[in-house]
Design goal:
This protein is of the alpha/beta class. It has five domains: 306 residues, TIM Barrel (Alpha-Beta Barrel); 279 residues, TIM Barrel, CATH 3.20.20.20; 81 residues, Methyltransferase, Methionine Synthase (B12-binding Domains), Chain A, domain 1 (Orthogonal Bundle); 152 residues, 3-Layer(aba) Sandwich (Rossmann fold), CATH 3.40.50; 247 residues, Vitamin B12-dependent methionine synthase, activation domain (Cobalamin-dependent Methionine Synthase, domain 1), CATH 3.10.196. The protein has 41 helices and 36 strands. The strands form eight sheets. Strands 1-10-7-6-5-4-3-2 form an eight-stranded parallel β-sheet. α25 crosses α28.
């Protein structure tokens, strides 16, 4: 009697066999005799050559594997029918016979050996519309019955490429077990998925999505097989090790195949395979290992020989948070900083537009609406097609099939028809929510829906309705909720965390006494249920509370009611997100009135409903209508201020009847842009909204240009803009372009990496009134200085504006200004550049000159005091003598030389994005005069949805393509130099870095952090170069050229910060490799503040300011292999790239050597 397979797996390392296909291909197989003229149908060999199949099994069993997989990878009706219908009829028998052949092999070797029934993915996937759930289920069910009848010990659903396919196969196994009165305790189900080199399954699902979708099923193990070698599986197994509570399997190929003499060759040696498998067991607690394509008995033997000395890691499992998923990614039911927003407009009963599109079978339009809801801030789509006269089953099947492929959002299937619900579930590969169950007809609805929840691993919304009707008081809502919960969990065995209780709310706008307290009853119920059933979610259809009111009043009441509901414990809301206002955008009087109405704060002489309605008697006109009541000149300015494009052409047409096009631009539109600049300068308008205004200005001017007289032009001045030679950064320059060109200036933006000769030629050609030079790098400041000398040599005195991240106001206004023979000004941002230009064309540059002289005089006074104080301190105590660096243990490098990594999931990088740098630095959202609370609300309501949208889009469109080249080298310090040695011969010097040393304070130099030559010990230095590729630059360039300024700003920012995130993430991985990650802080914010051991130093920054040292790094790392090159000024192209030296010393922190 064999030990149960579960016990065998639990007791130690459980080893599966290797590649059946690899073994077969090594044999001389006759197509006619062995394959029955069905070439490469390996499953048929069980019928024609069972001796061969048994010998292959025995070859693995003889080296000591615990289990073999049946020769049934493609032995199901769907696959076999692709050969011919006759082959399809053999499916059941092939599975029975294959199981028996495998059992004979096990018996011939003896001991506890197990037979796993192999069930491959087939050749057609449901999510791609290539087959149906029904056809696949029938095919897998027949296969599962055959495997059971043949006597398998477990099912192995392997090489899975589609979550929906996995669900279907699991259900087929469960159905087959039920048909012969068996359970998964007797014949367990094991699942193994395939993650492609892209980091996802073939259909795009990431590992987290897969885990959430499969966790509710009774499966024994989950793991990875095929597609890649063990190296590319490691990051996925590392995550699985922490988040999957069951057993984990790893069954890799023998590396990625290479074509040798026209045949596929798998390069991973047996020794390397054994080493990799040992690492998975000891580092990640993997229980089940085996081999896939290219692995032979020698590969398995290399692991089995080590078995007794391997000590599996005891895993600590992190609880995965309850979530729904799209086909691609999960969304948590309980959001950290918000509520779960469920879109209400993808519903035939909630949106006239959705209903109309449905009637017209406009499926693409319906999908567009789903995308709009997501862009508007929704997390989940409530999809309802219930509509009299329509086939709900067919409609839901169609729309769900389209949405799951085209929209990255989980679906809430909303229908009263259980058949329609199931039709939708059969097309949704992710994890859905079903809306809804209730007790209106007793337990009938639960009896219909709960089996579907179990079969398709879905969550559910439970309405507080019973046989007596909809609950309106808090006690009744609580009573029904608890009854529903008891049935859901105890009768049907479903999880509390997968249940969202809709406590229901009703309008409080009728004036009827019975309705006055309905809102407060709902709020009380939310608080009570949250305490009684804390694991459940709490849901509301918010807008019901305001039914019957005018739109402005509804918006305020809905917003206030939702705010109160969240405060009381609400976790999710079906709501039109864009119609909800944050508190700071609601007038206090309106807010207070809504609160009185919600809580029914009546007194003898005060009726909150009447008071609330009175506030909106005259405030019922939509915003566009309000604008239309203004004088025409104010309307024009409001369109600019509000950044609204829609409708501006009509207003411009009216304006053209009153004024000329030039008057409209100069007197009214530019006045609007002037106000925009003032609001930005005072902190009352954020940069993205400034750019929206600029887009409107551009559109308006384009519309008016054909109406101008010949020779007329909008031209306050002519400005040439350029990024200096060697610098590829253009965001600052382009923002200046946008602001100047939309404030009446003619701008000639000649691009990046411009020589002074090209700049002078452009200035001459275009008769420039001013030249603007930009650069991000420290090196670029030096280039600007050289450019000024060149301008002097050519006797050019055109006013020059300088700007860029590395340039300070003082350096520009003191040193650089003193060099140039003409006027020179510093521009901190685009609006300061605009102010300079405005003074220039007005002939008032003297105003700026006076302010500069005043600043310089004050600075000189302060510096004199500081110098005097330092002189006195030195005379008393002596000069700085420096601070010694401790001698520390040298960590062991994991390897020497360089490696490339291209399989990097953006979802792994995104948490390392510095949101402060992105939101404030790149995107220009600043707190300004706002309170901390008000600014935080803007971030959550407006900024974060942009961030989330762009993250999803960048992933879907492959806009960001992260790649890394990195490595380790032995080294020593030699004075101020760091000597780099050959990766093999650690005595051969191959490169040398020379670094500057501080002249005072700690007298620090980067070389101080490495063991000196005199120590006799070799130290270790890391180097890295990371990039997110050039595609993002192509996109930003296109957006800028199309005048999509706001999107340009957003995309450029996320590209830059994602490159920084990649550098941060890879630095962490390198610390892990070096074994110094124990000092890492737990939060991203702390990591950004160097909350770890050592430092990452980039060239051009204060510790190593000399950019030419990049040449040494590029020589060693060869970053051209990931698409990175150096400019003549040693800057990396593409722009969204960065390189670094990795220093392990604990005292190595950022400092300035200059």
């Amino acid at each position: 009697m064999r030990t149960p397979i579960q016990t065998a797996i639990k007791s130690g390392i459980f080893i599966l066999d290797g590649g059946m296909g690899t073994a077969v291909q090594a044999l001389d197989i006759d197509v006619e005799r062995d394959y029955l003229n069905r070439e490469n149908c390996i499953d048929i060999l069980t019928k024609t050559r069972p001796d061969i199949v048994q010998k292959i099994h025995e070859s693995f069993l003889q080296v000591g594997v615990n289990a073999v997989e049946t020769n049934t990878f493609g032995a199901n009706r769907l696959v076999l029918s692709e050969f011919d219908e006759e082959a399809a009829t053999w499916a059941y028998d092939l599975n029975v016979q294959s199981a028996k052949v495998a059992r004979l092999a096990c018996n011939s070797v003896g001991g506890d050996r197990y037979v796993l029934g192999s069930m491959g993915p087939g050749t057609k996937l449901i999510s791609l519309g290539q087959t149906t759930w029904g056809n696949m289920l029938d095919s897998y069910s027949e296969q599962a019955r055959g495997l059971l009848d043949g006597g398998v010990d477990a099912f192995l659903i392997e090489t899975c490429q589609d979550v929906l396919q996995v669900k279907c196969a699991i259900n087929a196994c469960l159905d087959a077990l039920a048909s012969c009165d068996k359970t998964t305790d007797e014949v367990p189900i094991m699942v193994s998925i395939t993650i492609e080199t892209t980091g996802t399954m073939l259909v795009g699902s990431d590992l987290e999505t897969i885990v959430h979708a499969l966790a509710p099923y009774p499966i024994l193990s989950l793991g990875l097989n095929c597609a890649t070698g063990p190296d590319l599986m490691e990051s996925h197994i590392a995550w699985l090790s922490e988040h999957w509570a069951g057993y984990i399997s790893v069954v890799p190929n023998a590396g990625l195949p290479e074509l040798v003499d026209g045949c596929a060759h798998f390069p991973l040696s047996a020794h390397a395979y054994g080493t990799a498998m040992r690492r998975f067991i000891e580092k990640y607690g993997v229980n089940i290992v085996g081999g896939c394509c290219g692995t032979t008995p020698k590969h398995l033997a290399a692991l089995i020989e080590q078995k007794d000395s391997i000590h599996p890691l005891v895993r600590n499992i992190k609880t995965i948070l309850p979530s729904a998923t799209s086909l691609y990614s999960p969304v948590e039911f309980k959001q950290d900083t918000s509520i779960l927003i469920i879109a209400e407009r993808t519903n035939a009963n909630g949106s006239r537009k959705f209903k109309r599109l449905l009637e017209e079978n406009q499926w693409d339009g319906l999908v567009d609406m789903a995308r709009e809801e997501l862009a508007g801030g929704a997390h989940i789509l409530d999809v309802c097609v219930d509509y009299v006269g329509r086939d709900g089953v067919a409609d839901l099947k169609e729309i769900v099939g389209r949405i799951v492929q085209q929209v990255d959002a989980p679906i809430m299937l909303d229908s009263t028809d259980a058949k329609a619900i199931e039709a939708g579930l059969k097309r949704a590969g992710g994890r859905c929510i079903v809306n809804s169950i209730n007790l209106e007809d007793g337990e009938q609805r639960l009896d219909e829906i709960c089996p579907l929840l179990k079969r398709y691993a879905a969550a559910a919304v439970a309405l507080t309705i019973d046989e007596e009707g909809m609950a309106k008081t808090a006690p009744r809502k609580v009573e029904i909720a608890k009854r529903l919960h008891d049935l859901y969990t105890n009768k049907w065995g479903l999880q509390s965390s997968d249940m969202m209780i809709d406590v229901l709310t009703f309008t409080i706008a009728t004036g009827m006494e019975a309705d006055r307290k309905l809102a407060v009853e709902t709020l009380d119920a939310i608080e009570m249920i949250a305490k009684e059933l804390p694991e459940c979610g709490l849901l509301l259809g918010v807008s019901n509370v305001s039914f019957g009111l005018k739109p402005p009043a509804r918006k305020v009441l809905n917003s206030v009611f939702l705010h109160e509901a969240i405060r009381r414990g609400l976790t999710a809301a079906i709501v039109h997100a864009s119609k909800i206002l944050p508190k700071h955008r609601i007038a206090q009087e309106h807010w207070d009135a809504a609160i009185d109405l919600v809580y029914d704060n009546r007194t003898d002489d005060f009726d909150p409903l009447i008071h609330f309605l009175s506030l909106f008697e005259d405030d019922v006109i939509e915003e566009v209508e309000e604008v239309s009541n203004m004088p025409l000149e104010q309307q024009l300015q409001r369109y600019i201020l509000d950044g609204k494009k829609e409708g501006i052409e009509e207003v411009l047409e009216q304006a053209l009847r009153e004024w000329s096009a030039l008057v409209i631009i100069n007197d009214y539109l530019l006045a609007g842009m002037k106000t925009v600049g003032e609001l930005f300068g005072s902190g009352q308008m954020q940069l993205p909204f400034v750019l929206q205004s600029a887009e409107v200005m551009k559109r308006a001017v384009s519309y008016l240009e054909p109406h101008m007289e010949k020779g007329e032009a909008v031209g306050k001045g002519r400005i040439v803009l350029a990024t200096v030679a060697g610098d590829v950064h253009d965001i600052g320059k382009n923002l200046v372009d946008i602001i100047l060109s939309n404030n009446g200036y003619t701008v000639f933006n000649i691009g990046i990496r411009q020589t002074i000769e090209a700049i002078m030629e452009a200035a001459d050609t275009h008769n420039a009134d001013a030249i603007g030079l930009s650069g991000l790098l420290v090196k670029s400041v030096g280039v600007m200085e050289k450019n000024l000398h060149e301008l002097n040599a050519k006797s050019i005195t055109t006013p020059v504006m300088l700007g860029g991240a590395a340039l300070t106001r003082h350096w520009a206004e003191s040193h650089l200004r003193s060099i140039y023979d003409g006027p020179l000004y510093y521009g901190r941002d685009a609006f300061e550049a605009l102010a300079v230009c405005d003074k220039l064309v007005a002939g008032k540059l003297a105003d700026i000159d006076d302010k500069i002289e005043e600043r310089l005089a004050k600075r000189a006074e302060v510096e004199a005091k500081v110098h005097a104080g330092r002189k006195e301190r030195v005379e008393r105590h002596g000069d700085d003598v420096g601070i010694a660096v401790d001698s520390v243990r040298i960590p062991s490098a994991p390897f020497f030389g360089s490696r490339i990594e291209t399989n990097i999931d953006l979802d792994v990088l995104y948490p390392y994005i510095n949101e402060t740098a992105l939101f404030r630095g790149q995107w220009g959202f600043r707190k300004g005069a706002l309170s901390r609370e008000a600014f935080d609300e803007i971030v959550e309501e407006s900024v974060r949805p942009i961030f989330d949208r762009l993250k999803n889009w960048c992933k879907e469109e492959s806009v960001l393509r992260p790649k890394v080249v990195y490595g380790w080298w032995p080294c020593n310090s030699d004075g101020d130099d760091v000597v780099i040695y050959d990766e093999v011969d650690h005595e051969e010097e191959i490169a040398r870095y020379s670094f500057p040393r501080q002249s005072k304070r700690a007298r620090r130099c980067l070389s101080d952090f490495f063991k000196p030559l005199s120590s006799g010990d070799k130290d270790v230095i890391g180097m890295s170069c990371v990039t997110v590729g050039s595609e993002v630059s192509n996109w930003t360039r296109s957006l800028f050229e199309q005048d999509e300024y706001t999107e340009y700003l957003y995309l450029h920012g996320i590209g830059v910060e994602c490159a920084e995130a990649l550098a941060e993430y890879w630095h962490k991985k390198m610390r892990v490799e070096l074994g110094i990650d124990g000092a890492d802080k737990s939060t991203a914010k702390e990591l950004f503040a160097q909350g770890y051991q050592g430092s990452r130093y980039s060239f051009g920054y204060p510790a190593c300011p000399e950019m030419d040292k990049q040449e040494v790094l590029f020589k060693l790392l060869e970053p051209d292999r990931i698409g990175c090159t150096l400019t003549e000024s040693w800057e990396i192209v593409p722009e969204q790239s960065t390189s670094a030296l990795i220093v392990h010393h604990p005292q190595a922190k950022y400092f300035s050597a200059t």
